[in-house]
Each structure stands twice: as C-alpha cells, then as structure tokens.
Amino acid sequence: MKRHLLSIDDVTADDIGALFETAAEMHDVQRREVKKLPALRGRTVINLFFEDSTRTRSSFEIAGKWLSADVINLSAKGSSTSKGESLRDTVLTVTAMGVDGLVMRHSASGAAQQVSQWVDVPVVNAGDGTHEHPTQALLDAYTLTRRLGSLSGRHVAIVGDLTHSRVFRSNLKCLTKLGASVTAVAPPTLMPSGVSAWSKEAGFATSYDLDEVLPDVDAVMMLRVQRERMSGGYFPSAREYTVGYGLTRDRLAALRPGTPILHPGPMNRGLEISADAADAVDSVVLDQVSAGVAVRMAVLYHLLAGPDEGAS
Ligand code: NCD
Fold first, then answer.
1. What is the tally of structural domains in the chain?
2. Same domain, yes or no, for 129 and 175?
C-alpha cells in the first residue's frame, strides 16, 4: 500500500483485498469483551476535523484506541484555526509534537493531498470537500462483500446528491475497481457537470429515472441531500425531491428481496430515505457503521504498523 490514503486511487484491488482480510480479523476483535490489540502501542494518531462529523471521527478514534494508539482529537472550533492560523501552520504544529499519523477532514477538496506534502507522517483523508472519502467507500464495499460475496458483476445504484458527494466519487472508483457496475441516479440539477464524458471514461451508467433502475440492482446506496453545500435551489421542494428520488415505502417494493440498502449517514429521514427503508430488514446502515471501525482499524494498521508487525 502507498504511504497515504488520500483517494481510492491510492489502493489497488489487491490492497483492498488485503485491507478486507485485516478488517475481518478486526471485526472479530470488535465482538470480544476486551477489544484492545497492542499493534499501535506507543504511536500517536491525531484526528484533525475541520468539518462536523459524528461517525467518521468517532470511529477513527475508536479504531486507534482499540489498536492501543494514543488518539488526539482536534476540531476547528476550539483550535487556533478559529484565531486565523493557517492550515499549514496548524499541521506543522501538531506534527512537531511527534505524532505518527494524521487523519483529516476539511471542507476544501484537495486539502489532505496538500497536507501530505507538508508532513512526513501518513495522512488519511477522512473527507475533503466534494472530492473523496476513501475510508467510507472501503467500508461500504466491505459491508457489501459480507452480504453479497464478490462484487464482480454486481450492479449498484448510487442515488442522490451526486454533485456534492465525496462518498459518490470514492464509491464509484472503489466499486468499479472491484468489478461491480455502477448506475449513478440523480435529478439533472444534482448530476455532476460533465458527467457524460466522465461516465464514458470511467465506465459507469447514469439515469434520471430511479424507478427504472431499482428492479435491476443488487444493492442501492442512498446519499444525503447536502444542503450545507448548496448555494442555490437545486430542486423545487423537499416533497418534490422525495417523489422523484427518495427511497419511499412504495419504491421498496420494486427492489428484489434481500437487496441491501446503504446510506453513509447522516440520514435525512423522510427526504432521501423513508423510515421504512432506513429500518427495513435489508437496510445495512448500522452494519456500515460497525464495519467503519473494523475497516479504519485495518487502514491505520496497514499505514502505521506495517503488515509485518503482528496484529494479535
Ligand atoms: C458523509 C460525509 O461526511 O462525507 N458522511 C460520512 O462520512 N458518514 C456523507 C454526508 O455527509 O452526507
């Protein structure tokens, strides 16, 4: 594996396979009463979150702690960033303290990549603007693999606010790398610009018609409508969005039985996903959360301990 995980471009299909093997071992640890492994004892990981987060930040924290690393959380609110310190000065300051790894989330696309050039420790991108969120894609693919087995030849629909979604971009790369075919479904206003050339180059399908796509998928991933990234009106009303693109109770019936329903969270219940879908027996939303810890343990382990150092 490469030194940093900034994008799904940084991992090969073989790397992903190795990460999933480690994640499966970590998943077993998660079920133990005593969850600590000594793998990262003596190492310090800093979580630098310049954007809000519930599951990503806490799962990186739990992942580091279960591997016995010391984990420090720093958020923009409460750090000197709010006093006007530059990103470069902030990361140089924290790395000067002797940290061994940096996990970061930032509202600017490319921020993690930029930081990786300033520091000499591994950097994990936990979401950079609308660009990528590689560990989310890895945990989604891991969750799907546990449900469906190999993803080769499987068809996954990714539905919603694709324009603003780093989860979409990372998942597209990850799923196609693992041999799945992807259909990107969104209203025309939330379909990324230039998608026709991009879809040809990257080999995915696009559709504006969710009802046409649903009966044909092996998994469906609903994405949040990211109002905080929207500057104008992308759809007339919430009601209209739900009618066209929400996974409503009626639409659930169009799915083949056993089709996993994914959502990275946080969910807007009643907007892109109905309560019936979020809580359906085939919803894997909480499996994604639990896989998030195991996959992030695997990522930290591979980047910080190196595969040659014993995990047990
Ligand atoms: C996503 C994110 O922050 O990119 N959430 C997450 O990490 N679980 C998706 C979102 O915010 O909608």
1. 2
2. no
